[in-house]
Design a protein that fits this description.
Keywords: NADP, Oxidoreductase. There is one protein chain. The chain is of the alpha/beta class. It has two domains: 150 residues, Alpha-Beta Complex (Quinone Oxidoreductase, Chain A, domain 1), CATH 3.90.180.10; 121 residues, Rossmann fold (3-Layer(aba) Sandwich). It contains ten helices and 15 strands. The strands form three sheets. Strands 3, 4, 5, 6, 7, 14 and 15 form a seven-stranded mixed β-sheet that branches. A six-stranded parallel β-sheet has the order 10-9-8-11-12-13, with helices on both faces. It has a two-stranded antiparallel ribbon with strand order 1-2. The longest helix has 16 residues. It is globular, with a radius of gyration of 20 Å.
Length: 311
């Protein structure tokens, strides 16, 4: 029996555990050029929780349904949309709103999922793998270059390590805990503790900001690149010395390119998933109604793998 549709929604900004509420969802109308997707799986990412906390209040409209990536099946199409898409698995991109049973969006923003990519892989194929792919392409490390990575044991950190290693550059994984260091034993990287002297780096990729980001920047040789793509510390970069940090936002790129170009990029991502470079482990799955348990698990120290919501 099909469960009634639900959505996870914030009517005010604040601590996600306190302000997110699970509400019933009526079947939304499907307009011209749109499709209705029944969501199968959607991960919890920092980029989903940061807007809920109010960090981007000026550009986040309330009420707000989080979820910038996931996978589902097209269940209904509007006028001027190929009815042959009904039943196809897709990534419904271009906007938030994946933390609900049913999501309506323009058909042009749906990426078809290949049959050999499973739902777990598809649900986590966009934000981390595509960000990593584009950052490595932008930096273009040369064989022998040393590239430092903060939050190296995170999902995207691991993908960056593998993609950098595939260029024959040297990935330097910066960690803060023993569990993080141990979890990287099988990854092609040199592990460096954040409170020890940094080796000289030709490039750096920072997801943390704050003091860690500044220390990373200080280790980059003159002329080297630093890409700053996250603020896990909650603190901005206080200064990067002689190194200029380039700010990387996936949204800016995705919304500036054509849908054909996005299709091509995701085709490369699916290939990276197939060979294991963009593989993301799943720690647990929770029904949408169990968001409290899911968020608690997501915040657990030493968590290994992504938390999936199953709407």
């Amino acid at each position: 029996m099909t469960q009634p549709p639900l959505r996870m929604i914030a009517h005010r900004f604040g601590i996600p555990m306190e302000v997110l509420a699970c509400e019933p969802l009526g079947r939304p109308p499907v307009a011209y050029g749109e499709v209705l997707v029944r969501m199968t799986a959607t991960p919890i990412n920092p980029s989903d929780l940061i807007p809920v906390a109010g960090a981007y209040a000026a550009r986040t409209s309330l009420p707000f349904v989080p979820g910038y990536e996931g996978t589902g099946t097209i269940e209904e199409v509007g006028d001027n949309v190929d009815p042959g898409l009904i039943g196809r698995r897709v990534l419904p991109l271009g906007s938030a709103g994946c933390w609900q049973t049913l999501k309506v969006l323009p058909a042009d923003w749906c990426i078809l999922v290949p049959d050999d990519v499973d739902d777990d892989e598809a649900a986590t194929a966009y934000i981390n793998p595509l960000t990593a792919l584009l950052m490595v392409r932008r930096m273009a490390p040369q064989p022998g270059d040393a590239v430092g990575i903060t939050a190296a044991a995170s999902a995207i950190g691991r993908i960056l390590i593998r993609m950098i290693a595939s260029t024959r550059a040297h990935a330097v994984a910066i960690v803060r805990s023993q569990s993080a260091a141990e979890s990287l034993r099988c990854e092609p990287s040199e592990v460096v503790w954040s409170d020890t002297p940094m080796p000289r780096l030709n490039g750096a990729m920072d997801a943390v900001g704050g003091r860690a980001g500044c220390d990373l920047a200080a280790a980059v040789v003159p002329g080297g690149q630093m890409l700053h793509y996250g603020l896990l510390s909650g603190k901005p970069l206080a200064g990067t010395g002689a190194t200029t940090a380039q700010y990387f936002r996936l949204r800016d790129i995705v919304h500036a390119i054509s849908r054909a170009q996005l299709d091509e990029l995701m085709s490369v991502v699916f290939d990276e998933i197939r060979v294991g470079r963009a593989a993301i482990s799943i720690a647990a799955r929770y029904p949408l109604a169990e968001i409290g348990l899911a968020l608690t698990h997501d915040a657990r120290v030493g968590r290994s793998g992504k938390i999936l919501l199953c709407p």
